[in-house]
Amino acid sequence: MKKTLLMGAAVCAVFAMTSCKSKESAYKKAYEKAKAQQETVVTTPVATQPTAPVTVTPAVPVTTTPAADYSNVTVRTESVSLVSGAPLKAYSVVVGSFSVQSNANALSNTLAGKGYAPRVVKAAVNGADWFRVIATSYDTKAEAAQSRAALQSQYKDAWLLYQK
After folding, report:
1. Which residue has the higher pLDDT, 163 or 103?
2. CA geometry: angle at 126 spanning 125 and 132, to 5°?
3. Which end is more exposed in the chain, N or C (fewer Cβ atoms within 10 Å of the end residue's Cβ)?
4. Are residues 142 and 56 in contact, defined by beta-carbon separation less than 8 angstroms?
Protein backbone atom coordinates (compact mmCIF):
# COMPACT_ATOMS: atom_id res chain seq x y z
CA MET A 1 0.00 0.00 0.00
CA LYS A 2 2.82 2.36 0.83
CA LYS A 3 4.58 1.52 -2.40
CA THR A 4 1.47 2.23 -4.44
CA LEU A 5 0.88 5.51 -2.75
CA LEU A 6 4.51 6.51 -3.22
CA MET A 7 4.41 5.49 -6.90
CA GLY A 8 1.23 7.52 -7.45
CA ALA A 9 2.78 10.59 -5.88
CA ALA A 10 5.88 10.21 -8.05
CA VAL A 11 3.78 9.90 -11.23
CA CYS A 12 1.79 13.01 -10.27
CA ALA A 13 4.99 14.96 -9.60
CA VAL A 14 6.50 13.94 -12.95
CA PHE A 15 3.28 14.83 -14.74
CA ALA A 16 3.08 18.20 -12.99
CA MET A 17 6.64 19.13 -13.90
CA THR A 18 6.34 18.16 -17.51
CA SER A 19 3.06 19.96 -18.02
CA CYS A 20 4.45 23.30 -16.71
CA LYS A 21 7.46 23.16 -18.96
CA SER A 22 7.36 25.71 -21.77
CA LYS A 23 7.65 24.35 -25.22
CA GLU A 24 10.30 25.69 -27.57
CA SER A 25 7.70 25.86 -30.25
CA ALA A 26 5.67 28.34 -28.17
CA TYR A 27 8.67 30.70 -28.00
CA LYS A 28 9.25 30.31 -31.70
CA LYS A 29 5.61 31.14 -32.48
CA ALA A 30 5.69 34.27 -30.30
CA TYR A 31 8.94 35.43 -31.97
CA GLU A 32 7.54 34.93 -35.45
CA LYS A 33 4.32 36.76 -34.55
CA ALA A 34 6.26 39.78 -33.22
CA LYS A 35 8.50 39.79 -36.30
CA ALA A 36 5.43 39.73 -38.57
CA GLN A 37 3.87 42.68 -36.73
CA GLN A 38 7.12 44.63 -36.98
CA GLU A 39 7.26 44.09 -40.74
CA THR A 40 3.67 45.21 -41.30
CA VAL A 41 4.24 48.61 -39.64
CA VAL A 42 5.05 50.96 -42.49
CA THR A 43 5.83 54.58 -41.93
CA THR A 44 4.08 56.94 -44.27
CA PRO A 45 5.58 60.35 -44.89
CA VAL A 46 3.51 63.25 -43.67
CA ALA A 47 2.82 65.89 -46.27
CA THR A 48 4.13 69.26 -45.18
CA GLN A 49 2.86 72.57 -46.32
CA PRO A 50 5.21 75.48 -46.81
CA THR A 51 4.92 78.00 -44.00
CA ALA A 52 6.08 81.55 -43.58
CA PRO A 53 9.45 81.97 -41.87
CA VAL A 54 9.16 82.40 -38.13
CA THR A 55 11.30 84.95 -36.37
CA VAL A 56 12.34 83.96 -32.91
CA THR A 57 13.30 86.66 -30.48
CA PRO A 58 15.35 85.39 -27.55
CA ALA A 59 13.83 86.01 -24.17
CA VAL A 60 15.70 88.46 -22.01
CA PRO A 61 15.69 87.47 -18.35
CA VAL A 62 14.43 90.15 -16.03
CA THR A 63 16.72 90.64 -13.10
CA THR A 64 15.42 92.48 -10.12
CA THR A 65 17.49 93.17 -7.10
CA PRO A 66 15.59 93.30 -3.86
CA ALA A 67 15.85 96.53 -1.97
CA ALA A 68 18.63 96.26 0.56
CA ASP A 69 17.67 96.57 4.20
CA TYR A 70 20.01 98.99 5.94
CA SER A 71 18.02 99.26 9.16
CA ASN A 72 20.48 97.06 11.08
CA VAL A 73 23.66 98.93 10.03
CA THR A 74 25.68 100.16 13.00
CA VAL A 75 26.07 103.93 13.27
CA ARG A 76 28.38 105.77 15.70
CA THR A 77 27.15 109.05 17.11
CA GLU A 78 29.72 111.75 17.82
CA SER A 79 29.94 115.51 18.14
CA VAL A 80 32.37 116.71 15.51
CA SER A 81 33.53 120.04 14.21
CA LEU A 82 34.34 120.65 10.55
CA VAL A 83 38.03 121.29 9.83
CA SER A 84 37.94 121.31 6.02
CA GLY A 85 35.54 120.51 3.19
CA ALA A 86 31.84 121.01 2.52
CA PRO A 87 29.31 121.02 5.35
CA LEU A 88 28.24 117.65 6.71
CA LYS A 89 24.82 116.09 6.33
CA ALA A 90 23.25 113.82 8.97
CA TYR A 91 25.01 110.54 8.02
CA SER A 92 28.63 110.33 6.87
CA VAL A 93 31.00 107.56 5.80
CA VAL A 94 34.28 107.71 7.71
CA VAL A 95 37.21 106.01 5.94
CA GLY A 96 40.04 107.01 8.27
CA SER A 97 40.78 108.31 11.78
CA PHE A 98 44.10 109.92 12.69
CA SER A 99 45.58 111.55 15.74
CA VAL A 100 47.74 113.75 13.48
CA GLN A 101 45.90 116.24 11.25
CA SER A 102 48.46 116.08 8.43
CA ASN A 103 47.78 112.34 7.97
CA ALA A 104 44.04 113.07 7.71
CA ASN A 105 44.74 115.83 5.16
CA ALA A 106 46.86 113.42 3.07
CA LEU A 107 44.03 110.85 2.91
CA SER A 108 41.59 113.66 2.12
CA ASN A 109 43.77 114.74 -0.84
CA THR A 110 43.90 111.12 -2.07
CA LEU A 111 40.09 110.89 -1.96
CA ALA A 112 39.76 114.23 -3.77
CA GLY A 113 41.99 112.81 -6.53
CA LYS A 114 39.57 109.87 -6.88
CA GLY A 115 36.58 112.18 -7.43
CA TYR A 116 35.16 112.34 -3.91
CA ALA A 117 34.32 115.52 -1.98
CA PRO A 118 36.11 114.60 1.27
CA ARG A 119 35.83 116.37 4.57
CA VAL A 120 38.06 116.38 7.62
CA VAL A 121 36.36 116.71 11.00
CA LYS A 122 37.71 116.89 14.53
CA ALA A 123 36.26 114.75 17.31
CA ALA A 124 37.19 114.67 20.97
CA VAL A 125 37.45 111.03 22.09
CA ASN A 126 38.46 110.26 25.71
CA GLY A 127 40.15 113.65 26.07
CA ALA A 128 42.19 113.34 22.84
CA ASP A 129 41.54 114.98 19.49
CA TRP A 130 40.98 112.67 16.50
CA PHE A 131 40.74 113.78 12.90
CA ARG A 132 38.16 111.80 10.92
CA VAL A 133 38.28 111.66 7.12
CA ILE A 134 34.79 111.56 5.63
CA ALA A 135 34.47 110.36 2.03
CA THR A 136 30.75 110.98 1.55
CA SER A 137 27.87 112.52 3.48
CA TYR A 138 24.11 111.93 3.08
CA ASP A 139 20.78 112.91 4.57
CA THR A 140 19.56 109.32 4.98
CA LYS A 141 21.05 106.28 6.64
CA ALA A 142 20.24 104.03 3.66
CA GLU A 143 22.18 106.22 1.21
CA ALA A 144 25.14 106.39 3.57
CA ALA A 145 25.08 102.61 4.12
CA GLN A 146 25.06 102.02 0.33
CA SER A 147 28.02 104.33 -0.08
CA ARG A 148 29.88 102.61 2.75
CA ALA A 149 29.26 99.22 1.13
CA ALA A 150 30.83 100.52 -2.10
CA LEU A 151 33.78 102.07 -0.27
CA GLN A 152 34.53 98.97 1.82
CA SER A 153 36.29 97.32 -1.12
CA GLN A 154 39.05 99.96 -0.75
CA TYR A 155 38.57 100.97 2.89
CA LYS A 156 37.57 97.83 4.78
CA ASP A 157 37.24 99.66 8.10
CA ALA A 158 34.82 102.30 6.79
CA TRP A 159 32.00 103.12 9.21
CA LEU A 160 28.98 105.37 9.54
CA LEU A 161 28.92 108.52 11.62
CA TYR A 162 25.80 110.33 12.78
CA GLN A 163 26.57 113.90 13.72
CA LYS A 164 24.99 115.07 16.98
Report:
1. 103
2. 15
3. N
4. no
Half-sphere exposure of 66 (CA within 13 A, CB side): 3
What pTM value is reported for the model?
Answer: 0.58
The type of residue at 3 is K
DSSP sequence for the chain? -HHHHHHHHHHHHHHHHHHHSPPHHHHHHHHHHHHHHHHH----PPP---------PPPPPP--PPPP--TT--EEEE-EEEEESSPP-SEEEEEEEESSHHHHHHHHHHHHHTT---EEEEEEETTEEEEEEEEEEESSHHHHHHHHHHHTTT-TT-EEEEE-
In the chain the first and final C-alpha atoms are separated, in Å, by 119
Domain 75-163: which topology?
A: Alpha-Beta Plaits (3.30.70)
